[in-house]
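Methods: example folding runs. The two proteins below were folded one after another, and each record is reproduced exactly as written to the output file, sequence line first and structure-token line second.
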Amino acid sequence: MLGADFVKGHGLGNDYIVVDGERFGIPLTPERVRLLCHRNLGLGSDGVLEVTKRVDGFFARIWNPDGSEAERSGNGLRIAAKFLSDHGYTIESTFVIVTAAGPVTTEVYRRAGRVYAVRLEMGRASIDRAIRSLAIERRRLDVTVVSVGNPHCVIFGEPLTRERLFAIGPLVERHAQFPQRINVQIAAAESRASARALVWERGAGHTLASGTSACAVATACFDRGLVDGKVTVLMEGGQLEVEVGSDLSLIMTGPAEEVYVGTLSPDLRQRLLEMQ
């Protein structure tokens, strides 16, 4: 079990703070999460994973840095699986983590006693056939809207540049078509076995990588006939391997790395306790 207050980990540069929800000692709230994730005033991260052990397994509550919650996170789940394995919560190589979107079967791969990669059975994707284009900036974007437990809008035919992502990412995230907001990717297939994507996450903004985004991009490219069933999705932080079944079932495999184990300072702890 974790003896410190938290662990900082990342999957392809998409970084999360991980806490044991029963041992952390401070109930998490949106305001407290925003401070913890603040890169100048807090620990700094793309989110917080609040992991708890249950009689029937494990549950991961996934917080975005703006204090909202995510139904699922592929990178977050790989980080959570590594946390549970490396810190002695389970000795099994295969186990289930439940999220707000349902259970995910995880399989960890170890080297020298530590987890270096995780395979996730992400369930079946679904595609919203009613939305094929989106009006933004007096033009229409070519899109595929995908759910992989959380919602994604994959955009095709746009330059894969940060400049373009920063211009349209926030507009698409908060578009009236998506009242609960949506994750956004600019994507393109590069071959029958690879695709490239830039990521704008709901509640977080630009991130270097996203596991569910990689699944959404692979699904959208597969549905358009651009790729085969095994796809390497390349993002700024690195690459993930995604398998897409004929029924749009998804398996994702990729790395997870622990950056450090930490203890809150008395000052930060006091600030958190003073918040609601």
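Second run, written to the same file directly after the first:
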Amino acid sequence: MKVFLNNQIVDSSEAKINCGDGGFLYGAGLFETMRASNGIIFALDEHIDRLFASAEKLKINMRGDKKYVADAVYESLNANGLKEARIRLTATSGVLNTENSEPTLLVTAMEFGAYPKEYYEKGILVVLNSYRQNPADILSGHKTTSYFSRITALAVAIQKRAAEAIWFTVDHRLAEGCVSNVFIVKDSVLYTPSLKAGILPGIARKTVLKLAAENSIKCEEKDLSINDLLCADEVFVTNVIMQVLPVVAIEAHNVGNSKPGVITKKVMELYTQYFDKAVKR
């Protein structure tokens, strides 16, 4: 596999970062996960805007401007000859507390692997995560490389044969999944947690909100509780890799009639159409 690392394409076996890099030592970095289809990266500008907004907020130095980063992403994709790909961009300030340290930018692209088809047809099981996230945490709402708690919670979910684990805040508000945003449907109205809950402003979440507004699906961003989640008629989770995944069970609790709901299926259809148009497929 070829990767883009600090101005050049190299073989992954030859890619090297400084052993003092803050991202490696302390998780002091940012990342973006993107999807390419038909050789086009979906919502690339939105991903890069989010990356740079977080870098400014967290005082992480970036290598190059937005165009430089966008070009690096496509260089990695093309160097591997891929049309359908999962792309990971990682950015750090390089060696911390050192004068004239060069920021690190790493972009990898690998063959896209879809979630199982049955997840979309029959829906998925999710579990409730016992850990809590704090909206007051400086990292809250940012996609940082300090991701160990998410990986741990997701591993526990997988052991329970679930596809995702749902997080709540320290003050018991519904937050998000380990790798996804959460939506619920109640009485034909779509709800999703407010960004004030410290959740990631997901690119797929933003897309769903846009599509709902354009297609007369009433949607509200607000504080939600575990009761809202368990009493929902429908539930689904989103990210740019899974797109829209229906949730039919939360632990031992069945959601609705244990099948993907009407509004969920409509959102899935709208998202697929929007995605296909964006990548000219």
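Comment on the second run: The domain at 117-278 is CATH 3.20.10.10 (D-amino Acid Aminotransferase; Chain A, domain 2).
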